[in-house]
Structure to design on (489 residues):
């Protein structure tokens, strides 16, 4: 942000306070100046007519991504991954096709999303399935592609110019830019930086809670059918590089029919029903509870005079509250954090508020303290390979099964007497029990189960309400070895 100098917002404010005439108010000026910037941009992007007639765009690209706070280790450098991507949009027919193939975080993916007006499908080449999308939404699905494609943002400005305000003039990378806003159909407003000389888009910014500032850079323009497209694109989150897109090909105004056709050789399956939206308490076995709703779940084990909580995903305070309907007065003495990823340490303040001891590995200490309400007073117990709770009422083992393709250290909770295993991020468990071929993370989990000689009967996890059986893990493993998955065209 150091290279940004706001030069004219304050001048605009002074003008507004010294004159009362309609032409000179700050809002009116903001609207008028935005209109001028939009007109100049339309000219630079091939003219208003070319942008009006720009109905379809399809692009092949190579993505490099960085897993900020989601890497195998707790700090930078973040894990780098690659994927191939194809996106195509047709505004008239409200058609969008997005395909992605690659891997990251111990997961492989190879699939596509097809939206055709009121209809939509999720295609998994990896699992060999096609799943209808319950409520396809063209605007939401196409949004990310529009936001990284400069001429499509200019087309948005053309159609939605009434939403645009001029924010001021800034220096960006040594060149003066006009900054104007754009409010798309869905999502927070964007601020677009247009070069004052070329009138091309250099940068776009928006604030996206809970991530923070998302910053898009458009570079390396080339002209295709009279319209300048940027060939490279960078996305930063809070000033850290997050995605680099290298465009391999761009086609404009061609029919999307071939891309939007459903593959005929895949199995049509029903979508898994949504998880409960309200927090629910399930007693898996006596005194062992899976509590959660939506995409986040925690396990609570009732000991003689206290409770041990496992998992730190979103909504731990509500999950503790729900637990109190069934276990009224025993204090939560321990909170087990499965790993250091930012969506799995949200429970630290909740456990600290309960005055519980937080279990983690030594390597994750800094992340846990940073997540706490008060870093210094956070009570930590480090797990070295294994930590055993046994008070005669329940035996609970916390085992580090790392390294895995997802995390160097990963704590799972194991109840040997009940045969219950609680895990995070290593066993996708859809609500309908339809297993997909085992991911690399799942293979590592299965390997660890056999290495440690655990006689697992039940598997529950931090992202599913479903109580899975060991047979579900076996069928995921079998599917991956029989290679049912088709390859992408
Ligand atoms: Zn994770």
């Amino acid at each position: 942000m150091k290279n940004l100098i706001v030069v004219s917002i304050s001048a605009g404010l002074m003008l507004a306070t010294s004159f009362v005439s309609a032409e000179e108010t700050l809002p009116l000026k903001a609207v008028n100046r935005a209109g001028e910037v939009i007109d100049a941009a339309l000219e630079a992007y091939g003219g208003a007519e070319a942008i009006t007639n720009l109905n379809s765009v399809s692009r092949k690209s190579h993505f490099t991504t960085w897993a900020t706070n989601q890497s195998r280790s707790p700090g930078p450098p973040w894990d780098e991954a690659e994927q191939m991507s194809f996106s195509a949009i047709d505004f008239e027919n409200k058609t969008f096709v997005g395909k992605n193939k690659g891997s990251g975080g111990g997961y492989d993916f190879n699939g596509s999303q097809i939206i055709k007006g009121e209809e939509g499908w999720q295609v998994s080449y990896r699992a060999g399935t096609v799943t209808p999308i319950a409520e396809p939404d063209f605007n939401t699905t196409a949004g990310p592609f529009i936001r990284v494609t400069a001429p499509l943002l200019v087309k948005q400005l053309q159609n939605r110019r009434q939403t645009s305000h001029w924010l001021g003039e800034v220096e960006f990378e040594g060149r003066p830019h006009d900054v104007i806003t754009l409010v798309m159909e869905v999502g927070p407003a964007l601020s677009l930086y247009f070069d004052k000389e070329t009138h091309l888009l250099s940068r776009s910014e928006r604030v996206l809670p809970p991530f923070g500032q998302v910053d898009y850079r458009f570079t390396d323009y080339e002209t295709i059918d009279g319209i300048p497209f940027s060939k490279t694109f960078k996305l930063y989150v809070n000033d850290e590089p997050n995605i680099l897109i290298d465009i391999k090909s761009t086609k404009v105004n061609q029919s999307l029919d071939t891309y939007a056709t459903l593959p005929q050789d895949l199995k049509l399956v029903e979508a898994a029903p949504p998880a409960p939206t309200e927090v629910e308490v399930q007693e898996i076995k006596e005194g062992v509870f899976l509590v959660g709703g939506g995409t986040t779940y925690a396990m609570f084990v009732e000991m003689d005079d206290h409770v041990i909580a496992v998992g730190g995903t979103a909504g731990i305070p509500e999950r503790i509250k729900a637990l109190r309907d069934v276990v009224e007065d025993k204090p939560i003495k321990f909170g087990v954090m499965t790993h250091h990823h930012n969506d799995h340490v949200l429970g630290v303040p909740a456990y600290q508020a309960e005055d519980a001891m937080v279990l983690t590995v030594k390597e994750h200490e800094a992340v846990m303290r940073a997540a706490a309400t008060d870093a210094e007073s956070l009570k930590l117990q480090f797990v070295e390979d294994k930590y055993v709770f046994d008070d005669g009422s329940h035996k609970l083992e916390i085992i580090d099964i790392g390294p895995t393709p997802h995390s160097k250290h990963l704590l799972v909770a194991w109840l040997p007497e009940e045969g219950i295993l609680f895990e995070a991020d290593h066993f996708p468990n859809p609500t309908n029990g339809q297993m997909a071929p085992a991911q690399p993370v799942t293979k590592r989990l299965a390997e660890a189960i056999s290495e440690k000689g655990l006689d697992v009967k039940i598997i529950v996890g931090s992202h599913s309400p479903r109580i899975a059986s060991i047979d579900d893990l076996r069928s995921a493993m079998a599917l991956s070895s029989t290679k049912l998955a088709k390859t992408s065209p």
